[in-house]
Amino acid sequence: MSASCERAIVLAGDLHARPAGALAVAAGRFASAVSVTAGGHTADAKSVLGVMGLGATSGQNVTVAAAGPDAREAVAALIAILSEATKVGGLTDAVWVYGKRLVAGWVAC
Amino acid sequence: MTAQPMSTGTVGIVLVSHSAELAAGAAHLAAQVCGGTVTIVSAGGTDDGDLGTSAAKVARGIAEAEHGAGVVVLPDLGSAVLTVRAVLEDYGEAGSVMLADAPFVEGAVAATVTAAAGGDLKAVAAAAEEARHVRKL
Fold first, then answer.
1. pTM (predicted TM-score)
2. CB B5 within 8 A of CB B112
3. What pLDDT does B3 receive?
4. Which CATH number fits domain A3-91: 4.10.640.10, 3.30.1340.10, 1.10.1610.10, 3.30.1490.190?
């Protein structure tokens, strides 16, 4: 079953290389197409260079959107990663497990 | 040559640079961005430690990076390509090794992230090559 899902979050920190990497690694494990939008620019969430190129910074509103068979899970995982990985010291092993553990309790759409 | 932690079944990456420091630094950066779950081997400099490339280092790097899913090799400049091609001619199973035409640092990071996400050999090579088209400004 195909679905679409979208959710926004305010970044707790800048979307630097490592959080962008965590995000892209996670996004790449989902079948759905996933995008990240910030400051009027949209990037493929599976492209780490595209995500870094957004230049998203602390306090900025970021939207994650997905379309496909696992769209809800993808958005939940990526929002969880964005909420954790951009915090100072927030890039823990749990985040690297592409948000699966963090998805528990999250209802994206 | 520096190897980062591996995970079985993931496409491996070999970074071939004229400079050992440049290859090692790019490998370190790519490992940090992907979370350290991909084998990234740096093959930089000559056997004597000078600027240049070494077929022996490249061959060892490919063997070290291969965990059953194939290896993507990224060269930095001109003659690094020639060195890699010479190695691949002798390698036999050339189908399991792909030479990517990509910007060195961006390609290394993009390829590694795609490998960490479980991408196959073609997807990892494509991610490296697409790095050329992603603007950073």
1. 0.89
2. no
3. 53
4. 3.30.1340.10
